[in-house]
Write a structure and sequence with these properties.
single chain; about 375 residues; alpha/beta; 9-stranded mixed sheet; 6-stranded parallel sheet; 17 strands; about 25% strand
């Protein structure tokens, strides 16, 4: 049995809680998981870290994340703070040789993600990759099950910022939230496109802010909440639409919105190949629409319920058709992160994946500003 691994969580909002719960659940689902020790939780909102330590079983709490840098008890750190802190925190822990499970988008730009350097394992929170139906789709594509991919539509549409009274939290500021919906939902979208269809060659994009002002929060925020403070300016994008040319020659549209009234976490894809097609919607995570025959026209599409043979589904449920949840994807991500630390090799989305996604998002901003196609760095 491997020795106990000490972990800490830095930033205890929505994702901090999800990471803490995922660590606790890993041994419930993965019998061979390395034993963990929840050493510390850090948050700078007074009382938040203490409450988290009491509720989730961390040995201690702190308001000062720097006190955890180089702490020999902490071998791995979850960085679940707002985007503008990822670079500073990630580089500090990486330089101290502490392994990192960091939330997407990893900083504000590709340069921020590149600044995290160290001889460590880094897992990035691109959780949608871990959905067993996505893994199944990847296998079908790789096996030529839908022929050669010709074109696809990916969407990440949400209404989390559709209410005009939604608080002007860090998410809507350039300096703390970066490029808005691009880093927030677009990072997931680009990662899913790359995971399923390979590298992006070039792209063209358009962006928009549809709610230019929001009320400032009057208390510390967590997640998405309403506010009634003085109005302030929204500095980053609510929406983008993009057209991607893949290295393979396939064409992809990816559109993302945080103000899409009527769309609640409407994330998914439709992928078309020369002989078949695949369809997935996150809200029906266990179902994959599969058309893989040879009729070309009028090809039937059947609904396949993923089961124990698909990805890590079997760690959760014994039979197809029993739904997995968002939090289960984070348990899978945590388990793969811990295994990557033990084996010293990546098993999930890596820092390179975060850099590639950020390069695509940076290119989208350039394209939206210039009105031109942008070729991605190789
Ligand atoms: N993978 C996903 O599906 C997913 C979903 C939501 C958010 N995220 C990402 O997770 C990150 C956090 O998002 P969230 O929704 O949890 O935000 P949140 O606002 O709910 O939580 C952020 C927490 O960080 C804390 N914090 C801020 N500054 C700090 C500091 N200096 N030291 C310690 N703690 C500090 C805040 O007090 C807050 O508790 C973001 O990068 C976001 O993009 C990923």
């Amino acid at each position: 049995m491997e020795p106990e691994l000490g972990v800490a969580v830095v930033g205890f909002g929505w994702m901090g809680r999800v990471h803490a719960q995922a660590y606790a659940r890993v041994p419930h689902h993965f019998a061979d998981a390395r034993p963990l020790r929840l050493v510390s939780v850090a948050d700078d909102v007074p009382g938040r870290a203490e409450a988290a330590a009491r509720r989730y079983g961390f040995e201690e709490s702190t308001a000062d994340w720097r006190s955890l840098v180089g702490d020999p008890r902490v071998r791995a750190v979850s960085i679940t703070t707002p985007n503008f802190l990822h670079r500073e925190m990630g580089s500090a822990f990486a330089a101290a040789g502490q392994h990192i499970w960091i939330e997407k988008p990893v900083g504000l730009t590709a340069a921020d993600a590149r600044a995290i350097v160290g001889d460590i394992q880094v897992t990035v929170g691109f959780n949608y990759r871990h959905a067993p139906a996505v893994e199944k789709a990847r296998g079908i594509i790789a096996d030529g099950g839908i022929g050669t991919v010709t074109h696809a539509r990916f969407r990440f549409l949400s209404d989390y910022a559709a209410h005009p009274d939604g608080a002007l939290s860090w998410r809507f500021e350039r300096a703390r939230g970066g490029n808005g919906v691009l880093g927030d939902l677009g990072a997931h979208g680009v990662d899913l496109v790359r995971h399923l269809l390979g590298e992006i060659d070039s792209l063209v994009a358009d962006t928009a802010i549809f709610i230019p002002e929001r009320p400032r929060p009057t208390t510390a925020t967590a997640g998405h909440q309403r506010a009634a403070g003085e109005p302030g300016p929204v500095e980053n994008d609510d929406y983008f639409g993009s057209l991607l040319r893949m290295v393979s020659g396939a064409r992809v549209t990816l559109d993302c919105s945080r103000v899409a009234v009527g769309e609640q976490n409407s994330y998914g894809f439709e992928i078309h190949g020369t002989t078949g097609a695949l369809f997935w919607d996150f809200r029906r995570m266990g179902e994959l629409g599969v058309g893989t025959g040879r009729s070309y026209q009028d090809e039937p599409v059947r609904t396949v319920y993923v089961g124990p043979a698909d990805g890590d589904f079997g760690a959760f449920q014994p039979g197809a058709g029993i739904p997995l949840s968002f939090d289960d994807l984070k348990v899978i991500e945590a388990a793969r992160f811990l295994r990557s630390v033990t084996d010293n090799q990546p098993y999930g989305p890596s820092l390179t994946d975060a850099i590639r996604a950020a390069e695509a998002l940076d290119a989208m901003e350039q394209s939206a500003a210039s009105g031109r196609w942008v070729t991605l760095p190789r």
